[in-house]
Amino acid sequence: MANSSSTKTFAIKGMHCASCVRLLERALSKVPGVLTANVNLATERASVSLDPNLVTTKDLSDAVSSVGYQALLDQQTHFSSHLEDEEKQRKQKELDDLKTKVIVSLVLGGLITWGSFPLIMDTAPSLMRIFLVQFLLAIPVQFYAGFDFYRAAISSLRHRTANMDTLVTLGTTVAFTYSTFVTLFPQVVERIGIEAMPYFDVSTIIIALILLGRFLEARAKAGTGEAIKKLLGLQAKTARVILQGDPLRGKGSPYEKDIPIDQVKIGDLIRVRPGEKIPVDGTIIEGESSIDESMVTGESIPVDKQKGDTVIGATINKTGAFTFKATKVGQDTMLSQIIKLVEEAQGSKAPIQRLADVISSYFVPIVIMLALATFVIWYNFGPTPSFLYALLNTVAVLIIACPCAMGLATPTAIMVGTGKGAEHGILIKDAESLELAYKIKTVIFDKTGTLTQGKPKVTDFSFMDNLEEVKDSLKLSKDKVENIENYILSAVYSLEKHSEHSLSLAITEYINHLGGGRMPALSEVEGDSPEVKGVFAVSGMGIKGEVDGIKVLIGNKKLMEDQKVMRCSELDKKAQQWSKEGKTLAYISINNKNIALFAIADTLKESAKSGIELLKKIKISVYMVTGDNPQTAQAIGSLAGIPPENIFAEILPQDKEKIVQQLKFGVTRGGEPHGRGPLVGGHGAAEWQDPKHIVAFVGDGINDAPALAASDVGIAMGTGTDVAIEAADITLVNKDLRSVGAAIELSKKTMRTIKLNLFWAFGYNVILIPVAMGILYPFFGLLLNPIFASLAMALSSISVVSNSLLLKRFNIRT
């Protein structure tokens, strides 16, 4: 039996740079039973796929602590507001501790600099110019404020790795050790011709500025996770549940009671009054109201709800009071699923980050080698005193190198980008989907439920003119023969009620309406409902079966042709007319003879035309696939603004996937894909130059799942089935088709931000490390002071995070 796998997500304390990420991932991956380990620097969380039969939480905790970090495994559960509060308190405590160390190091380092920096030391009290006083002031900065650097560096050394803490520890320790030696043994230094001048200002201010940078970076990173905090803040704290058996009113009398949200169970009846927050997902059983769903879907206009409609937890009841039955609670509610999706997306890695990860794994060892080379070159070839020049330039190289910016370049932008999407009802499954979406060249829309409302209604119905000839072929009782029209409708109803297809529901609703809310046969024909046997749904065509021993077919033209049904010329004329009006046709066949016809219309979504116009504006090709006949498909496509040559009609559900695959690799106008067979129905539209064309498919039904999975980027409508949403890379909760283009634009903006971040992170190191080594000295006599090197290093990380935060200002067009 195959081993089942599960995923554990938990917070990790103590990460500072991309090297930390690689170290943790290696440690976790070595645990027997761990399949994959993904550590995110921006969220400071690990997501581990594992075999629960082989791996315990202690194994994970030990693996993390073995490399010098702390696993907070009590933080692994999503969506719990009290755990979120605990994590918030923990992070605030860390921030407060860091703030204290920043203040200590800045104050003491500032005093030391005041007494030692040439331009200002004359204004300092004589006490501050005493080297021994500077030494005493430097000790708490080096070993209290800088303690975390030492702890992380020693841990990484123990595991034969190196990270940013290693560089900072080496640089500041070299400066502090030399300064201490000069202070305690000045005669020794002077004996070899070097002025006894300590550099406590260098070691202390470096620590102070790096800690200040981390503090500001942590504050900025907190802003990148605002989307999750906002979503968690939407959760209701209590629910007003209707219970039975009020002791004050008598046994069995119903009464209302406010209970904590985590105590609500499926099936509970909950009362909501105007202005209150709906606590969980459910179905209204009494009352009606207008509900503001903007906090979940991004749709600003309140939605009218009545008995039988679903309500979403965390949305706000605007007008009337109503009672609803809880259908989803806890982690199964829509809000919890949204939080989970956003959290997983923010914790995932984009493929573009792999380059940064690879470089980061070699970065620190290379910097250490460059620092050694710097010391050797300046000591042997530098001006007098060569030792001091070598020392200060080596410290500058160690301090200025910054793998942090490389580690933050991608995840911070992903966090802000996915959070921005969630605010507007665009849920992106992972970073890879976000990265791929910006390359989309073609979008294929399913028609029913995607471009249209998905609520078809029968608009026209007709029997053949002469039903007498049908009577003769049916062996029915006298009563049934005399009421032949009602009997046929009864037979259609009895067969169609076995199907959940939207067209079947439209037909049964129409027949019920004709009977005043009852099936006509039950009110006007003697006897019980017809006996139904051998019901079989023909995928993409219709349904067939036997009713009272009579062969009945209900479906499209293709089903009639496949079953060799005798056509009716008068119904064919009506079919042609109704098709031109954009209506879907459902033929009725009795004993292989076409005797009736339904015309069904589904209204185009208000956002369909504007959504497609937005895609065209950003140079995206738009296609439509449908099972309708070509005339109906062309009529709907024309209303939506889709070119006729880009419409695929009479497409079976299983063939949608084939069209996706063929459009990926390009098709000619004649309909022949490169190296593939002919397209299944429909027309070709273009010939791609790219070896692989990036194609998105937008759908909402179970039969769309294969096409969603086959596409490069699957986009599911939030109103669709769980199967479709599970197969999708992006889910549109807001039902607005303009969000398809908005998701692509958001992806493009996010990728531009990531590329700019990486350019800055790599460019910073490529340019400033040689400057720190002294490359400008032979030409301009310029050297980089280690203090300014530490300032530049701190600013590099802050700039990357700040650039990612600019994504919050991006205006999503929906």
Describe the protein.
- The chain has 814 residues and is of the alpha+beta class.
- It folds into 5 domains: 6-76, Alpha-Beta Plaits, CATH 3.30.70; 87-227 and 343-417 and 751-809, no CATH class; 237-276 and 281-328, Calcium-transporting ATPase, cytoplasmic transduction domain A, CATH 2.70.150; 427-451 and 604-745, Rossmann fold, CATH 3.40.50; 457-601, Calcium-transporting ATPase, cytoplasmic domain N (3-Layer(aba) Sandwich), CATH 3.40.1110.
- The chain contains 31 helices and 26 strands.
- A 7-stranded mixed beta sheet has the order 14-26-25-24-15-22-23, sandwiched between helices. The protein has a 6-stranded antiparallel beta sheet with strand order 6-5-7-13-8-11, with no helix packed on it. Strands 16-21-20-19-18-17 form a 6-stranded antiparallel beta sheet.
- Helix 1 (18-29) packs across helix 12 (353-381), helix 9 (226-233) packs antiparallel against helix 11 and helix 29 packs antiparallel against helix 31.
- The two termini are 48 Å apart.
